[in-house]
Write a structure and sequence with these properties.
single chain; 440 residues; alpha/beta; Outer Surface Protein A, domain 3; TIM Barrel; 2 domains; ten-stranded mixed β-sheet; 15 helices; 37% helix; globular; binds iron/sulfur cluster
Length: 440
């Protein structure tokens, strides 16, 4: 006996019917015969459905055995990822100081650096937490992490050596404003520090970027960042995060031709984030979450525009991250700030009242830690058909409010999938279930 998957996303565009599954990532254009078979499964007319149809639909995860607890299976994967003991992840804010003075930044830019005794304690903390692990990952963060390059060097050297000795893998990435990231620095980060990817933020095209991403002097930074991206994209993977607001959305359109003119088309990954996101990597939002629906429209329009003019945005196919939820709710991940305090959420960096502990004392606030570790998938997400992609969005949002707004994918996933359909030759229109489309 069978049932249709709770993670199916069915939709119609023109005369065509499509089916996507957010857990398996399979995507198919459905013929009327296959649609009829799905209807038959819903109506429990199993005997009338061709065996081949059942096999095909099962191979894409669109149809599952009736006894399968899909949500339970997802939660199991999520628990393995959250409470498993394979990896240790650190986000390290080398300093809270920054060479920029972006007006919306929530961090207090004090001259605090992770150094001296705090650095010694950091190395001890890493060693202690690597017991029985197989992977170590570090994300360098700030302030601007490149204001404390010597620390990155020393900690990276230590991490590389200890991982080699223990036969562990080590990977590192960086979130930087990009202003100091010239070719020499990038070479050093890649070859000495094992940093393979960097995320750089732009606030639109030059016009709006230069109003908000400014130096202490108030001077704009677009040209220097663009020059640096041109210098480094062939040695380090560059993701450009573009903050989008009502005020700058028109200027964002101008960014694509500029990147094309600079010969960066297809060489960098570009993605959009709603304004007010707490930090440079996670995509949570505070009060601005109320505009997610509007943001999802901007995002769709911007992607369409990029397609029209031939700019390659990178792989936009919606794929599940398996069980990986935000690191704030992962048992083996911490954020370390320049005071040596430990946090779970990036948003809390620098706010010692919210720390769960410190490098020198270990966990000092079990209550705060428990709040994160006992986070559960919000109720509304347990019945959402794109939950394996969104995973309940930002844990901090749902811990703070019940009626938080959904991820933008909830509003534009069908447009994203239809774009994929239009851009790929027929034989590639099915992902992870190759045999479906030909029979559809
Ligand atoms: S809980 Fe939310 S704000 Fe905090 S790190 Fe995770 S996604 Fe970001
Ligand atoms: S936040 Fe919304 S889109 Fe995300 S899993 Fe929950 S219900 Fe679905």
């Amino acid at each position: 006996m069978y049932k249709v998957s709770q993670f199916n996303v069915p939709f119609k565009k023109g005369d065509n019917y499509f089916l996507y599954n957010s857990h398996t990532g399979a995507f198919a254009k459905l013929s009327s015969e296959y649609r009829e078979s799905i209807r038959g499964i819903n109506e429990r007319r199993f005997d009338e459905i061709p065996k081949k149809h059942i096999e095909d639909l099962k191979s894409g995860g669109f149809v599952v055995d009736e006894s399968k607890d899909e949500l339970g299976y997802y939660e199991y994967l999520s628990n393995v990822s959250r409470y498993g003991n394979n990896s240790f992840g650190l986000t390290i804010a080398t300093t809270l100081q920054c060479n920029f003075r972006c007006p919306y930044c929530y961090e207090e830019h004090v001259d605090e650096y992770l150094e001296g005794e705090k650095e010694v304690n950091l190395l001890k903390f890493i060693e202690k937490n690597l017991e029985n692990k197989r992977h170590l990952s570090i994300t360098w963060y700030g302030g601007e992490p490149l204001l404390k390059k010597d620390l990155i060097d020393r900690v990276s050297r230590y991490a590389i050596e200890i991982c080699e000795k223990r036969n562990m893998t080590f990977r590192a990435s960086m979130v930087s404003n990009g202003y100091l990231l010239n070719r020499n620095t990038a070479m050093h980060l890649v070859h000495k520090n094992n940093i393979k990817s960097v995320q750089i933020t732009l606030d639109g095209g030059p016009e709006t970027h230069n109003l908000t991403r400014i130096l202490r002097s108030g001077q704009g930074t677009f040209d220097v960042i663009l020059r640096n991206i041109k210098e480094i994209h062939d040695i380090i993977q560059v993701s450009i995060r573009v903050n989008v607001t009502k005020e700058n959305v028109q200027d964002v359109y101008k960014l694509f031709p500029i990147l094309m003119r600079e010969n960066l088309n297809g060489k960098v990954r570009v993605y959009f984030a709603p304004v007010g996101a707490y930090n440079e990597v996670c995509q949570s939002v505070s009060e601005s979450c109320l505009i997610t629906r509007e943001f999802s429209k901007w995002e769709t329009d911007l992607i369409n525009y990029a397609d029209e003019i031939g700019f390659h945005m990178g792989d936009l196919y919606p794929k599940s991250r398996k069980g990986n939820v935000c690191q704030a709710v992962n048992n083996n991940a911490y954020v370390v700030d320049a005071y040596g305090n430990l946090f779970k959420c990036w948003h809390e960096v620098g706010n010692s009242k919210l720390r769960v502990g410190s490098l020198s004392e270990g966990i000092t606030s079990p209550e705060r830690l428990i709040k994160w570790m006992n986070w559960k998938l919000p109720k509304k997400c347990t019945t959402c058909n794109i939950m394996p992609l969104c995973k309940g969005r930002c844990p901090e949002l749902s811990l703070e409010m019940e009626d938080f707004e959904c991820h933008q994918l909830k509003f534009n996933i069908k447009d994203r999938l239809f774009r994929y359909y239009n851009r790929h030759p027929k034989e590639k229109q099915v992902v992870s279930a190759e045999n479906l489309i030909e029979n559809a």
